[in-house]
Amino acid sequence: MTLKDQIQVVPANAEAVFIPPPEATKAKAQDTGPTLEEAIARNEALTEKIDALDAILAKPLSEILADREKAEEAALAWDRFGAMWMLSQRAMRRVALDLAAQLGVSEEEVIARAMTNANAVLNGADEVDLGGTIAPAQLQHIARHRAFLRKQFRTG
Prior knowledge:
mainly alpha, 7 helices
């Protein structure tokens, strides 16, 4: 807003009348920004962020780097675990399909049986430990993630 928008020059003529400023100027004046409560809330949120950053920066650099290294090591361990899991899944799928082919069972039938068995485990109907190869902790782990796993094994 310029000074010309704020000041109205009235001519020195006695017949001149005062012309009020346009409504747009009033609308601009009303739009002054956030309310006091909004400003306080934003200030508190920013203060929390600054405090969190200060807490990180208050640590010695060696401690910050050690935390990062630990996180990278954990991420690498999970990545390797995922690769191992995928490898074992592909190998077991290949074994199942090879054995099924020897028995004259189609790939579709093998997949249908696998889905049926997976759903039985997810629904708690199959609590068999398969001769000690499935530990109770594994079944508990599956139970904790049951909702997510159901999406993976949904048929149709």
